[in-house]
Input
Amino acid sequence: MINIINAKFITSSQNLSQCPDFGLSEVAFLGRSNVGKSSLINALCNQHGLAKSSSTPGKTQLINFFSAEFIDDEKKERSQAVFVDLPGFGYAKVSKSVQQQWRKNLSEFLRGRIHIRAFLHLIDARHDSLENDENLSEFMAEFIRPDQKILRIYTKADKLNQSGKAKIKAKDKNAILVSAAKKTGINELKEQIFNALYS
Ligand SMILES: Nc1nc2c(ncn2[C@@H]2O[C@H](COP(=O)(O)OP(=O)(O)OP(=O)(O)O)[C@@H](O)[C@H]2O)c(=O)[nH]1
Ligand SMILES: [Mg+2]
Output
């Protein structure tokens, strides 16, 4: 089994040029506001309140970096990585110009941050074909490198019944269904992130 330990907040940055170089592989959490990015980081790291979450969309407004250690239980190997909690997109309660600035910062970061090895695209399991999620997939396809992976994570799976979950699996065979609230799918996700980073 893969475990994640010793997660710590490192720093926040406003845009790509302010981001420090940690010399470690990074995992970027992205998706619409309120989809559950910050909550998923907390579930993976088993630390409530590490990344700030809120029922009000638009909680995360900066690029937040966390360090964490992956432990491969069998091999007893430890590897350092960095988790990046990003502001969500589609948050309407700020002015047009602020929204445009966020969008620019986010796309610049996604394109330009060379340390990213895994993009975790979080999609609300109850709303799995929203236009802005499809736009994001197309946008990422334009610049993804061969050494980078995109994982599609369907969040808030606790809100779906069995047939709802089966529908997602039928539509997307690589779908990873998780619930930060009920801690389901979290171990599988740890394995997938580990594989994306180190294999
Ligand atoms: N039922 C359920 N609620 C969840 C789950 N994950 C997150 N939530 C709730 O969804 C809301 C948003 O969670 P956040 O983690 O703050 O979402 P975010 O994507 O970081 O949002 P922004 O920072 O605004 O982009 C909070 O009220 C969480 O408690 C889940 O697995 N199940
Ligand atoms: Mg957040």
Summary: The chain has one domain: 2-198. Helices lie at 37-45, 96-112, 131-141, 162-171, 186-198. The beta strands are 2-13, 26-31, 63-72, 77-85, 116-124, 149-155, 176-177. The CA atoms of residues 37 and 183 lie 14 Å apart.
